[in-house]
Amino acid sequence: MISNQKIAIVIPCYKVKKHILNVINDMIQEVDKIYVVDDCCPEASGDFVESNCTDQRVTVVRCIENQGVGGAVMTGYSAAISDGMDIIVKVDGDGQMDPNLIPAFVMPIINGEADYTKGNRFFDLEEIRQMPKIRLFGNAALSFMTKLSSGYWDLFDPTNGFTAIHRDVAKHLPMKKISRRYFFETDMLFRLNTLRAVVVDIPMDAKYADEVSNLKISKVIGEFFFKHMRNMGKRIFYNYYLRDMSLASLELPIGLIMVILGSLFGISHWISSLQSGIATSAGTVMLSALPVILGTQFILAFIGHDIQSIPKRPLHIEKRSFIHNHKIKR
After folding, report:
1. What is the C-alpha separation between 35 and 293, in angstroms, rounded?
2. Which of 44, 97, 100, 198 has the smallest count of CB within 10 Å of its CB?
3. Distance between CA atoms of 185 and 235, rounded to whole angstroms?
4. How far apart are CA 57 and CA 86, in angstroms?
5. pLDDT above 60: residue 206
6. How far does the chain reach from its first CA to its final CA, in angstroms?
7. Is the pLDDT of residue 151 over 60?
8. Where are the alpha helices (H) located in the chain, listed in sequence order?
């Protein structure tokens, strides 16, 4: 037994008929329920599991239409919450994720150290050598964009789908708004930050066999960039202007205005100098450079504040404490 917490596994299924039974058979005994989510799979994975699996813990949940990995996971979350599960672990159906790592994912949540845990394949530098170079580069680029959009500056490997979440946090997620497709994992981090949930990386090895990934980072990095910038704008507005105001709330706009005005002033005089053939005076250069330098310092100060503002107290612990204190007062 890991603890007295009820642990559920959610397995979104889409074209993983070849691997799904092995994933279920390898599931550790500490798991209480296994939700196999048939995401309108063309291979009829739900029917296949029901016909060939005898594990009493398994429940097949069917999506009426294809939801994408995000929609399938949210469907599994809803089923687990309805059944009173305490911790929900998401495992892919392609066999890339080792079920023996589940205790490592759930213990930080049980111990009150995290609300949400996710895998990170970049801890062991020797192990990641087997990762394809294009995927390695893509993950590094996506990780940096995720830090900006989510506010979790201490996390890496954002597309890793091996995750665990506490029920009380999952219940507060805007499930209908979370991205349904490949942006799901990174959009989850943005949503979790708006809840001020604590997220922790769990070291795991990279594993690649004969499975084929449907995510082509080279094709989605442009789309991801746009969505990350959108989420970054939303997060900054929510955290620094809607919910709270601080010195950082002034540093960012002042810094941006100074950099933009200084740059425009400098570019206009540079163009004028090229056209007239007359060198720009040192004073004019300084008038352009000074606001850019100061504005950059303001922006860096804001980023420093943002890095220090990573959520540190688990949301489900705060909720439990609030309920306990409320009962005492009554």
Report:
1. 55
2. 100
3. 16
4. 15
5. yes
6. 35
7. yes
8. 17-25, 45-52, 68-82, 102-110, 133-150, 167-170, 184-194, 217-237, 247-276, 282-308, 315-329
Assign 220 a pLDDT band (cuts: 50, 70, 90): low
pLDDT band at 283 (very low <50, low <70, confident <90, very high): confident
* Cβ contacts of 200 within 8 Å, gap of 6 or more: 108, 113, 114, 116, 117, 118
59, part of any domain: yes
Question: Do 236 and 254 share a domain, yes or no?
Answer: no
Query: Does pTM top 0.70 for this prediction?
Result: yes
Residues 127 and 221 in one domain: yes
Final residue of a structural domain among 184, 219, 240: 240
2/30 Cα distance (integer angstroms): 6
Q: How many independent structural domains does the chain possess? A: 2
Domain that holds residue 176: 7-240
Q: CA angle at residue 160 from 11 to 151, to 5 degrees?
A: 120
* Residue range 58-99, pLDDT digits in tens: 999 999 888 899 999 999 999 999 999 999 999 999 888 999
Q: What integer pLDDT is reported at residue 327 of this predicted model?
A: 52
Distance of alpha carbon 235 from alpha carbon 225, whole angstroms? 15
What is the longest distance spanned by two Cα atoms in the chain?
85
Residue 81 sits in a domain whose CATH number is: 3.90.550.10
> By C-alpha distance, which of 162, 166, 52 is closest to 100?
162
Tell whether 2 is covered by a domain. no
